[in-house]
Amino acid sequence: MMQQTTQKAKMTPLTKVKSGSAEKEKAKHLKSLNELPMPEERQEAWRYTNISKFRLNEFYPFDGSAEISVSDSTGLKEKGVILCDINTAFNEHTDIINRNTVKNNSRAYDKFTALNASHWSNGIFLYVPKNVSVEIPVNASFLISTKSAVVRNIIIAETGSKIDFIEDYSSDSGEECLHSCATEVYAGADSKINYYHINNWGNNAGNFTHITGVLDRNAAINWVSASFGGKLNRLRIDTLFNGEGSQSENLGVFVGRSREHIDITTNVYHNTAHTTNNIMVDGILKDSSSSVYRGLIRIEKAGQQTNSYLSNHILKIGEKSLGNSIPALEIEANDVKASHGATVGQVSEEHLFYLMSRGLTRDEAENMIVQGFLEPIISKIPSEELREKIRGLITR
């Protein structure tokens, strides 16, 4: 990804409206929500994440909304870019949605997917026309102030377009809250999307975010994610390489504190030839926090000449923390390069004592180790403003 700086953008509240066509679509998924069981830890997609004590019905009727602020769209409109509430999009831009989106693009469907599909209340719609390059990043801020918020986003970049999109999610209440988010990202032929996701949840937040990217011929999606906080903080990113020559890089960091549990999944599906993927996700666990990282590289028979790699490294500070890493390869093609690497390590008391003997407090010593461990990934983030924001969240 090329170097760039992020300019401050004027943020304006996004007005929520009602959409009749959207309500009809949501009604189709309500039966599935009622019939599907809660996921269990023995299922591969939920291994090491126990949600048996998570009472979904306590957040019913799931009618809260996120407070959404987005970039000033005045300059975007001049280029034909559409940035609006998702309900407005279903009222006014159904032709664009139907023309560009792929039905059933996700490989996962469970109770939380059904919850989102049947109860999403608001979200954003971003559309970039053919051959349009947007120089200033588009920003979206999601604040959860209610007991529950169910969000759906759709981002479409047409052929030859370029866009940087930055989203951050947070909660401002100490009460228990549920956040569900499903985002669909469509990269048309020869388009490029730099997608930045930051979440920073309160101690009692339960977050379930599922992002799916679909790439056409020679398209590129570069993911950057940073996850912090939450009683249960689950982020899943699925990347579907549907066009030859498509490519993606996925950089992620996370920090767990106290008794937080962070659940990160990155799945890539190489469905055609000559595609390239690189994933690096590293995390820090402090106190009694826990995490699980799942990473899958799936290469179909048609995915010849694929080059795909993933790595995950977890560093534990404190003997009560627990980290799990589950990388996996499923390869049907015979002319590919695919590999993975994973480590889970513990910081020794001797290492901390050495730093403290040089005049640092224990907190300062831990922060130095954390920064040094995550900096190789952070330094790859193109935006200096985002690098500094993530560094601040890491050491808070």
Account of the protein in words:
With 396 residues, this protein is an alpha/beta fold. It has one domain. Helices cover 20% and strands 43% of the residues. It has a ten-stranded mixed beta sheet with strand order 1-2-5-7-9-11-13-15-17-19, with helices on one face. It has a nine-stranded mixed beta sheet with strand order 3-4-6-8-10-12-14-16-18. Helix 1 packs antiparallel against helix 5 and helix 6 crosses helix 7. It is globular.
In short:
It contains 8 helices and 19 strands. With 396 residues, it is of the alpha/beta class. Helix 6 crosses helix 7 (362-378) and helix 7 (362-378) runs antiparallel to helix 8.
Structural class: alpha/beta
Strand element count: 19
* Assembly context of the chains: single chain
- Using only C-alpha atoms, the radius of gyration works out to 21 Å
Q: Number of folding domains?
A: 1
- So what's the overall shape? globular
Strand content: 35-45%
Q: Which H/E pattern describes the elements?
A: EHEHEHHHEEEEEEEEEEEEEEEEHHH
Low-confidence stretches: 1-9
Helix content: 10-25%
The averaged pLDDT comes out at 91
Describe the main β-sheet briefly. 10 strands, mixed
> What is the number of helices?
8
List the strand order in the largest sheet: 1-2-5-7-9-11-13-15-17-19
